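Let us walk through a complete example step by step. Step one is to write down the protein sequence. Step two is to encode the small molecule, adenosine-5'-triphosphate, as a SMILES string so that its atoms and bonds are unambiguous. Step three, shown after the inputs, is the structure prediction itself.
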Amino acid sequence: MLVVLAGPLALLITYAFRESNFLGVGPGPTLEQFKAVFEQSANVKIMLRTLGIGLAVATACTAMAFVLAYAIRFRLHGRRAAIALGIVVAAGIASFLVRVYAWGTILGTNGLLNSALQDLSLVNHPLGFLFFGYFSIGVTMAYVYLPIATLLVVSAMQEIDPRDVEASHDLGAGRWRTALRVVAPQARGGIAVAFAFTAVLASSDYVTPLLVGGARGLMVGALVQEDALVNGNYPASAALAFSFLALLVLALATIALLVRLCRRPAAALARLVDRHATRLTRWVPDAIAGRSLSRPAALLLLAYLILPTLVVVVFSFNSASTIGLPFKGFTLHWYPSITERLGFGEALEGSIQVALTAVVVGVLIGVPAAFAINRATGRLGSGLSALVYLPYAIPGVLLGIAILTAADQLGLQLGRGVTSLVHVLLVAPLVALVVSARLTGMDPRIFEAARDMGASPARVLRTVTLPLIMPAVIGAALIGAAYSLDEILATNFTIGTSSTIPVWLFGQARRGFNPGINALGVMMMAGTLLIFLIAAVLLRRTLINPGREPV
Amino acid sequence: MPGGIHATTADGPAPIPFLRLSGVTKRFDETQVLRSTDLEIAQGEFFTLLGPSGCGKTTLLRILSGFESASSGEVRFRGKDLGRTPAERRPFNMVFQSYALFPHMSVAGNVAYGLRTKGAGREEIRERVRGILELVHLPDAGPRPVSELSGGQQQRVALARALVNEPEMLLLDEPLGALDLKLRKFLQDELRSIQRRLGTTFIYVTHDQEEALAMSHRIALMNAGEVVQVGGPREIYEQPQSRFVAEFIGEANVLACKVLAAGRNEAEVVLDGGGACTLRKYGDARLVPTDPALAVVRPEHLQIGGAEPLLKGVVRQNVFLGTHCRYDVEVDGQIVRVAGSTAGAPAEGAVEICLVPGRGVVVPDEPASAVVQQAGRQGGSAAEDADDA
Ligand SMILES: Nc1ncnc2c1ncn2[C@@H]1O[C@H](COP(=O)(O)OP(=O)(O)OP(=O)(O)O)[C@@H](O)[C@H]1O
Ligand SMILES: [Mg+2]
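Step three: the predicted structure of the complex.
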């Protein structure tokens, strides 16, 4: 079982290494490609800019995520907290591509904002310089990666006892002080992970720069993608990707080091500020001091998460063929029209085939892997779980080119098959994680009880284990399917001349605005959300699952 | 304890014991969880493993049920070595501390599980499930999902699920541990009467000494992976062989003393700061004159005033306990507890304490090193590594 899980992963790792051999194209490994990367000053400049954007997005995302998570965990209660969390999850699930595209329609040269400004005669030519470029990339990425960052921070805050927070208030600490001195240190791990995660995701993203970056918004991911897919120069793209990855790791390590070095001075500074803050805020009236700032801030952030996608939904019903106000009239015309476009059918077929394969194979690998993880103890167990997270820690671009070059070297035909393999790598760990969480939540004595009553191991599996994990398996499979149907970052590299819905939509979106894209986007979002909703219901019922069995 | 129970081991030429553990040990990596354990259990017995938390009770039970294998030694059931028999092939059933009911099945589904596994017919299953649910006072619970039941009801379902298979032996791991006091007392009585009615051999794990005394035919008291004494409740209570046993079961005054003379079943001692008396001595306790030892005397074995005063002290407290009262008497800075009658005026001030003749036990000063284990009624004792073959 272990081999089944580790096999593809190990393969992937060796592929990733094989690439650097492959750089030489000739017999021996060479540094030629790396030299080429660093000799071009444009490359270096773009790498640094990408890094800058990645870190800026990570900073913004983490800060916003902290506020939102803090509000959800400690300031909102009951239903409200659940709704807020639901919005965050939904925003994180709803199609990545469509959410990026939403910003394209807002910020684009002929986008909503520009056309509105022009209509209002505030400007008389499109403000492209403001809207297409690093600024728009940053805004879009912060939006796209906020949900995942928030979820990471929320889960870190889950372990903080709300009574700590209350105790802090009780001791006279203000809200800010509580948030920064009680909550933040305890959620440190989650905050660091959220920062690193968003930094990696944002700086390796090429879809966002290509959709909202315009000509000026070049980033490394887009260069890698162009080298590999347009020029077919795998060595160059691999060298570039690895150079950048090294730079990114270096930057993150430096930040970690700096944070560690600054911890003591920062604590001293915090104490100093604290002391004076108490003296200063004594003059602030109670009514104002008692106000929660995190709640209105959280509301704003939730609006930030919802509104852009609403633009897509609204304009999918607009009868005008350009985006912009005023709303011309209601129509359902765009929904059928997009499906009649060239290539849609093939892409749909591709998506379904890839998702089905990925889910079936992913379940077949993931479920046994979950048992292995669950049974392994100590260091082996934690090593195994770390292995499971690996595919998610590798940026999609890297996964894409790794598989691309590997397939090239093995002489595999790119297309649905290779893409399915990539998706299996993403779905199987997901299934393993969910199912092993389910197994961990179960009393191991239940299985012993079954054996105690004479059931053979096979019978225990059939009558007890499988029925108990089935909802978790189905839930995980559905989430995997939703993930697979929406995956683009790696798929774009491995799909070859074939296509899937996101890849096709990406192509359409790059060609310019088309209301049909909105319609398809709405369908994709609705689809992923629906699948996810079913999965959520199933997974919740696994926790309290009475089940009836008449005798 | 009914006399018939040990008939099988007491007479007959070479009776095969119902269950016999010889030299069973268990180690997990570096920790020795069970030291060499020898036990013999008779058919129909309510046998309790009693001891403080972490002493290895569950481990011993899991070795019997087959979920854990012994590191050395053997378990023989009706003479057959169980070493290679997997849990599902052993004719025992277990009631788990956490109940371990199947959450995806109804009460009836849970109870029927073992019967289904054995391939019983539909009619038979229905009948037996109904019968056993009546026995545990849950006649109408069959179709209900187990998650809807209260703790006490779940406990009874777990019991029914095990009993319905008519096991040769039922293993119960602190089955009442999670319940509140009232329910626990009620279910203790119920378990006891079910066991007496069905005659199934029960091996019952608990760390509650009152529970053990109230329910068992015999008790094996364990400490730190060792069985320190085996005997009937009365025997364990009245004839503790070590300080640990005396203090774990019931209330005991442990008084330092010196041995004056030691006989086979008795020893004459002089209490430190008190008078001389004759105390009983059990097992192969090694007591040599002039050695320090410990006198173990229950509060009800002492009285205020009497012919031969043993200790002198001052009453510090008089606690009313309904049926009797308890005096806390300070003797040389140590509190000695003495049971008293509630009739008449309570004693006050300086008093003299006397021993009820024939009561009180003397045990060695260092009980931890002298591990004495008496296998049931046979009177035989085995040192730590004695071979019981
Ligand atoms: N699987 C295991 N691995 C390592 N040590 C174990 C394992 N199971 C039990 N132990 C250790 O063996 C000792 C005895 O455990 P056991 O569960 O038998 O105690 P117990 O008498 O049932 O205690 P309690 O009354 O708390 O249930 C404990 O110190 C425990 O830590
Ligand atoms: Mg136990």
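Step four is interpretation. Residues 1-9, 15-29, 542-551 of chain A have pLDDT under 50 and may be disordered.
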